[in-house]
Amino acid sequence: MGVFSTTGPETAGHEQVVFCQDKQSGLKAIIGIYSTALGPALGGTRFYPYASEADAVADVLDLSRGMAYKNALANLDLGGGKAVIWGEPDQMKSEALLRAYGRFVESLGGRYYTACDVGTYVQDMDIIARETDFVTGRSEAHGGAGDSSVLTAWGVFQGMRAAAEHAWGEPTLRGRRVGVAGLGKVGRYLVGHLLEDGAEVVATDVSERALDWARQTHPQVDLVADTHALITSDIDVYAPCALGGALNDDTVPVLRAKVVAGAANNQLAHEGVEKLVADRGILYAPDYVVNAGGVIQVADEIEGFNFARAKQRATQIFDTTRQIMRLADADGVPPAAAADRLAERRMADIGRLRTIRLP
């Protein structure tokens, strides 16, 4: 993937990609700003041991683009960005490294706001915030929003309700069998919402600790050995809540669910998978639409966090998902394509207003 590649009719590559290095602390970071058409770019920092620099670049470019679309459809006045720190967090993470990274974020002058992602946590954001004001997702002790998985799960549940309405006529999972792949922080909250709504839940996770949690907390949840066993079982809804690429050439042909709606990012393994999903009569709720509750939560922190306000905004994911399903039907395209069109339209329409000069 090239930095200057054209990715769509309304967008032509990334605005800015910054490489950051502090040799003494071991910091090697890349910050990708895809678009600031709607406002400062917001996206988390991923701390991950990539196999190569090329892999790190590809990830930050892909993730920052996704954040632009996610923030646009979450109705936020924020653009899209993402950062990656290249390395093994358990071995390399230190106060010096995080503060060095914070100074690089500060050097961008507010073009980019960072937050948590894979390998980084609220405590890390508190340390980064000692060097920059452009950080969110901080701990409640420091005036932040705390764990963003709370509203991520709530938003996924709302998107799933909208997809259920489109598929079966009612916005509820009551009586439906939902397969949850991944019982991390988001998956655990999602299971709770599903059970409260009257759904049957079958789940899996690679972590024995996560499975033990399910056995002790929700003994009524059926647990299966792996994701293949999950997706080939008799389920109505598939909720990928772990790694990306859940929908691929191997899984789509054997998937038995009627609806896919989950928290994982980048669920479509490659371009064209959305058509394979649609051809099988499976309704896919675009991941960056339904999992936007977390970014809504941390974005609310920028204006002074209010949980009730943030939850109300995350609840609107139901309406956005419903709108995308209807647009997809009207245009005769998969929901993923409809979501992209809607996001690009908002970036173009609202971004155009920046051309009106102010005194």
UniProtKB/TrEMBL annotation:
Keywords, in A-Z order: NAD, Oxidoreductase
Pfam families: ELFV_dehydrog, ELFV_dehydrog_N
InterPro entries the record matches: Aminoacid_DH-like_N_sf, Glu/Leu/Phe/Val/Trp_DH, Glu/Leu/Phe/Val/Trp_DH_C, Glu/Leu/Phe/Val/Trp_DH_dimer, Glu/Phe/Leu/Val/Trp_DH_bac/arc, NAD(P)-bd_dom_sf
Residue stretches making up the Glutamate/phenylalanine/leucine/valine/L-tryptophan dehydrogenase C-terminal domain: 146-355
UniProt KW Oxidoreductase keyword: yes
Family: Belongs to the Glu/Leu/Phe/Val dehydrogenases family.
Name the UniProt record assigns to this protein: Glu/Leu/Phe/Val dehydrogenase dimerization domain-containing protein
Species per Swiss-Prot/TrEMBL record: Pilimelia columellifera subsp. columellifera
